[in-house]
Design brief:
With about 140 residues, this protein is α+β, with helices and mostly antiparallel strands. Helices cover about 20% and strands about 40% of the residues.
């Protein structure tokens, strides 16, 4: 199995109606267990893209670390008075590929990208994910 740690930040969004609230802000519907989406400015420019994982009574939002601060600020701004809680977690994100029975969630963008694993336990890094991703 090939694996690599990714430079990602994970937010936990919870509260009454969090799924409906987030659905009104992003570019994709939350019909699947894992969704790849983005949030845009009113002019249509991308603020950040991210993966959304459905959890019991919450959503996990995984984005590139470089977008985390701006995304967190924008989500808090859109929250207004909604009973939504947005917490940055210390969850680590790994990509695993080239294996038949892989842990984690399949990458919704392309099956060959492998699975994404959100964990608090380290996984040995054995390959370069960017090289793998760009080769596809």
């Amino acid at each position: 199995m090939s694996s690599a740690r990714l430079s990602r930040t994970v937010f936990r969004l919870s509260g009454e109606g969090v799924e409906d609230w987030l659905s009104g802000l992003i570019t994709n519907s939350l019909d699947n267990p894992v969704t790849f989406a983005a949030i845009l400015t009113p002019q249509g420019k991308i603020i950040a893209d991210f993966f959304i994982y459905k959890e019991d009574n919450a959503l996990l939002l995984e984005t590139a670390a470089k977008f985390a601060q701006g995304l967190h600020k924008r989500l808090r701004m859109y929250r207004l008075r909604a009973p939504i809680e947005i917490i940055e977690t210390d969850t680590q994100v790994y990509a695993v590929w080239d294996e038949t029975d892989m842990p984690g969630h399949p990458d919704p963008r392309h099956a060959s990208l492998g699975n994404r694993v959100l964990t608090n336990k380290p996984i040995p890094e054995t390959a370069d994910y960017d090289a793998h991703r760009l080769s596809l």
